[in-house]
Design a protein that fits this description.
Oligomer: single chain
Low-confidence stretches: none
Strand order of the largest sheet: 1-3-4-5-2
Distance between the termini: 36 Å
Structural class: alpha+beta
Bound molecules: coenzyme A
Helix content: 25-40%
Order of helices and strands: HEHEEEEH
Number of strands: 5
Radius of gyration: 17 Å
Strand content: 25-35%
Number of helices: 3
Length: 158
Amino acid sequence: MMPKRSSDSATEMVQVVLPNDANPLGFILGGTVMHLIDIAGAIACHRHTRSLLVTAAVDDLQFLNSIKVGDLIILRSHVTCVFTTSLEVQVDVYSEETLTGKRQLTSRAFLTFVAIDRDGTRVQVPPLLVETEDEKRVCAEAHRRREERLRRRDMAKG
Ligand SMILES: CC(C)(COP(=O)(O)OP(=O)(O)OC[C@H]1O[C@@H](n2cnc3c(N)ncnc32)[C@H](O)[C@@H]1OP(=O)(O)O)[C@@H](O)C(=O)NCCC(=O)NCCS
């Protein structure tokens, strides 16, 4: 399989927050943000693997700032590291005020997807080109997060 760069699959999704997405205070619902994070993460992983995928894990998620109706929600996703049949993707969420352009980071999420075929059998994912010092650091951090989430999964399984 041909190795690919993270930049080959990096994705940006932008949409306007509409009243239907919001709570009575006029802020986007946390569940809507989570849904969009899942989609943005999946798109980058689909672009990397060109396979079917399932979400295996979503790490701890914080909502640092609210996003109000009329603002833009921007989701940027990129693959941080690939393992054997799974890969990790980082999704950064920003709000942007349409009239001023003021932009704020509102969430950062790490998700793990597993590549499968149409029978549900797990398949190997293409390698990720990890070349720069920064890419190596990001991938090393992803390995540490993977160990921790597998530890927590095993605890959850009991
Ligand atoms: C995710 C799933 C495919 C894992 O299958 P499994 O047979 O239990 O898992 P295994 O222990 O054999 O691990 C398979 C791979 O998934 C990874 N994985 C499994 N659970 C994980 C978790 N909670 N967090 C991170 N990685 C995980 C493993 O590290 C392994 O990756 P690798 O091949 O790159 O080393 C399976 O649990 C599943 O189908 N879950 C439901 C997924 C789902 O419905 N998602 C929501 C809708 S898409």
